[in-house]
Amino acid sequence: MQATHLLLRARPRAFTLIEILLVVLILGGLLTITAPAIQGVVASSRLRDSASVIASELFEAQQLAITLGTETEVRFYQLPDPMDSDPAPLIRKLQVLTLSQPADGPQTGKSDGGVFVPTGSPASLGGGVMISSSSSLSSIVGLGFRTDKDDRIGRFVAVRFHTDGSTSLSPEKEWFLTVLERKASRSPVKPKNFVTLQIDAASGHVRSFQP
Q1: What separation in angstroms does the CA of 170 have from each of 3, 25, 93?
Q2: CA neighbor of 158 nearest in space, from 58, 83, 60
């Protein structure tokens, strides 16, 4: 009898249904509280990654202009998204191009008579990220979108680099572009989560700002 009594006392106690429900409620509450913060961190990471891609493309174009002794461009393309019901085009693709001049012409390194040729494949901004088309958030939009008969990707605005590393942008203005989440682009209010890249017209240097 004593041995049986000891075995009964050693048997582990199971959780009751109320205790399990209480744990589930606590976990649900914690997830509700922390989910927005986690989503914000993930979104910030995506924006930083996209801004880094853009900055790298601008830096590559500047270095190629200096090294090759010819003008280069970074083109920002405005394209519709086939996965979205909204037909409004988005700036979500960019590409570096270098100036190629005719072999029988003067090698001036300038765009007179030359053709801009891509250095590689276009870079795309994924994960619901885009460059703002608003001139208040992206002043480069003020340069005006244009087309090139040799460029089949679409309409674009371009930042051009000269052989000394400077840009063709006016030094009298501030030049910048803002990377944000696509859903924020439709909001009338200024987004809370974004990255702005500022381009120095004279030096071609790029600085990044994120709230």
Answers
A1: 93, 59, 24
A2: 58
Q: What is the pLDDT of residue 150?
A: 87
Q: How far is Cα 139 from Cα 198, in angstroms, rounded to an integer?
A: 10
What integer pLDDT is reported at residue 127 of this predicted model? 74
- At 12 the pLDDT is 61
List all residues 6 or more positions away from 108 whose beta carbon is below 8 Å from its beta carbon: 101
Averaged pLDDT in 10-residue chunks for the chain of 211 residues: 50 69 75 63 85 97 96 94 66 95 54 82 89 92 93 94 96 95 75 93 95 85
Q: How far apart are CA 48 and CA 41, in angstroms?
A: 11
Query: Per-residue b/e over 5-35, b at no fewer than 16 CB within 10 Å?
Result: eeeeeeeeeeeeeeeeeeeeeeeeeeeeeee
Contact 208, 55 (CB under 8 A): yes
Domains and CATH numbers, the chain: 41-209 (3.55.40.10)
Task: Enter the tokens of residue 57.
Answer: 């493309």
Distance CA 177, CA 156 (A): 14
